[in-house]
Design brief:
- It is a single chain.
- By secondary structure, this protein is of the alpha/beta class.
- A five-stranded mixed β-sheet has the order 5-4-3-6-7. A two-stranded antiparallel sheet has the order 1-2.
- Helix 2 packs parallel to helix 5.
């Protein structure tokens, strides 16, 4: 075997070793992500942790201005709380689904509230073209901290929570809602 062949074989062995390390790294990352997702789903759906009572004390300006959205009026019934922004395409895409969910389930006691993490003028302009039937509050930049306090540690949008009438968080979702998410939520049975 000449030097050129030896160098080529060593290079090939190094390439194989690098590939194995890359695959191991990808597998470890996937495993950690899966474990994190499982922990997230467990904490959001099984723990039934109570919402921070200070949420019910909050008031938000409405997009129309001059009036406020008082969160105490949503206490005691199941609530989908959705954080969104006009500049967030998945947020905008899920709004018709949330609107339909609200129309179909409000007679069953369900409530939906959208909290806009956006500038008031942008929200007003958006809602002139795409009106929704559920209440919208202007959380603006304070909404990011509120969403984080409710479990959205990454600060991603859209972010939705399902809160029971007794104030337990039973679902959290970061990312665009699907019809199956809302269908599953509509089938929840709440005692309070």
């Amino acid at each position: 075997m000449n030097d050129s062949q030896q160098i080529q074989e060593v290079g090939f062995a190094v390439a194989i070793q690098r590939r194995r390390l890359l695959y191991a790294g990808v597998a470890a990352t996937a495993g950690l992500c899966g474990a994190g997702l499982a922990l997230w789903n467990h904490s959001a759906t099984d723990a039934g942790e109570k919402i921070d009572p200070s949420l019910w004390q909050r008031k938000f300006e409405t997009p129309a201005g001059g009036t406020t959205l008082d969160m105490t009026s949503f206490q005691g019934k199941p609530l989908v709380l959705n954080f969104w922004a006009t500049w967030c395409p998945p947020c905008v895409e899920e709004m018709p689904l949330l609107n339909r969910f609200f129309r179909e389930n409000s007679s069953k006691g369900w409530q939906v509230v959208g909290l806009a993490i956006d500038k008031p003028e942008s929200v007003r302009r958006f809602l002139r073209d795409f009106a929704v039937g559920y209440p919208i509050g202007m959380a603006e930049s304070d909404g990011i901290g509120l969403a984080q306090s409710l479990g959205n540690l990454s600060g991603g949008l859209p972010f939705s929570l399902v809160i029971t009438g007794t104030g337990a968080i039973v679902q959290r979702k970061i990312g665009r809602l699907s019809p199956s998410d809302l269908s599953a939520w509509a089938s929840f049975e709440f005692s309070g």
